[in-house]
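Protocol step 4 of 5: obtain the predicted structure for the target chain.
Materials: sequence only (see below). No template structures provided, no constraints applied. The aim of this step is simply to have a reference model before the mutagenesis design in step 5. Sequence pasted as it appears in the construct record:
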Amino acid sequence: MARYKVGDYKLRVGRSRTGRGVFACEDIPRDVCIDEYVGRVVKEEELANDRLKYLFSVSKKKMIDGNIPENRARFINHSCRPNCRAEGPNGRVFIMTKRKIKAGEEITYHYGKEYFDLILRKLGCKCVKCLEEKAAQRKSGAKRASATKRANAPKRANGAKRANGTKRTSGTKRASSTKRAGGTVTGSAKRAKRTGQSGHARV
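Step 4 output (structure tokens):
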């Protein structure tokens, strides 16, 4: 049982992403016991009570309700990428570290497949791992949408260029015609002026 002796590590209860959580106040080494999940034994007829929110199965025939003031471990939240695990012999539950935990880091453990499938999967898990995966999926979806938009954009752009090119060519032709017409008028006017001047000289 020496392995399951709760060490004198400083922990605190504070606000977390999903309500209250437990946080490390100092660096904690790997594979040490940091807390015990304690509670009163629940009778079989009480299990149908929906108000019991901190139930923990400690054996096949024993369930405890951790909603008691001295049970700080009841505030430890679930994570799909936990830094701790719940284990223990003789109908008891101890919280063991899976890796080194840094000061300020939230303490988490996996609540188990049954609880995850029945409760968390329906509600939507809000642990860091699941939120990161959802963010990555949204980012990937946005990239695919942007790539599809870019793939379709060149067809419209080429059509627009051809249309604009036709207009510019037609405009250029009209501009050239105007210039030539203007040049003819100007030339005629000059010739008329010169003729008038010459005629006046002859008079």
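Step 4 remarks: The beta strands are 11-16, 19-24, 33-37, 40-41, 55-57, 63-65, 77-78, 84-87, 93-97, 106-109. Residues 127-177 form one domain.
Proceed to step 5.
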